[in-house]
Amino acid sequence: MSNIEADYNEIVTAEITGRFLKETNIEIINELAGDHRPEHVLFDFDGTLSLVREGWPEVMIPMMVEILQETGTPENADQLHTTVEKFVMELNGKQTIYQMIRLAEEIQLRGGTSKEPLFYKQLYHERLMNRIEQRREGLRSGKTDPEGMLVPYSFDILRNLRDRGVQMYIASGTDEPYVKEEAKLLGLTEFFGDNIYGAVDDFKSFSKAQVIERILETNKVDGDKLLGFGDGYVEIQNIKERKGIAVAVASDESGRSGNPDLWKRKRLIGVGADIVIPDYRMHESLLELIWNSN
Fold first, then answer.
1. N or C: which end of the chain has fewer CB within 10 A?
2. Structural domain of residue 77, as residue ranges?
3. For the whole model, what pTM was predicted?
4. What is each CA distance from 249 to 107, 175, 241, 266, 283, in whole angstroms?
5. Are 45 and 61 within one domain?
6. How many CA atoms lie within 13 A of 82 on its CB side?
7. In this predicted model, which residue has the larger pLDDT, 150 or 37?
């Protein structure tokens, strides 16, 4: 199978409001049918569990605007910001390198000579690390409670899932060494063990779809035994392609308000999400719904 991550493919175009499970914030878009009993559970990382990188667009977008201004384009900073923001967010969920490939294309469109996309990815990571180093150091030193750097109630749903005997995995578009390091700082490694996967410099050798395929083939199970959580379209799209249950985590990363991010909600419903939640505070009701639907 190809490891080139697919573009956003909207399959639900109408404005949809699902059914809310009684006395919860759990929005059911597609009624679940059949005896699912998931055995394998896949999580995206940033925005789905970790909030360490919250605010990353405020690093990536200005960097790209700055680089595009160097081409001598007649567009002003506001015009470039609008252009960059659109493609950065459209590509959100893919590996970071895809946003940098697009940046290189935009440079060339304006008559500039671009460097390799990997150069821009490394530059972005340097700037992002400067922004989030205080958060990471707080976790290292114990001064920061990991709970404050996670989507609310992440530990609770992970404990609940562990008690149900499922195998859990992380598949992230962020580079694998950073994902593993930050998962450890957040206290998540005990739930996932070695099942933590992320992007690599040879981006064509990794995809979330590949991780899903490996899970199903290695364990000789069908896709209906897979449950996935994500705040990006790629994992939701991949899970639905294999007939798994896809839970859209429309997380409010900056406010942790318990209200869904409406842009994420609409985008994830568009690729077929079955259920939408803003965080995991209703995890008991959510998992009861999934396990007992038949």
1. N
2. 57-141
3. 0.92
4. 34, 21, 18, 11, 12
5. no
6. 4
7. 150
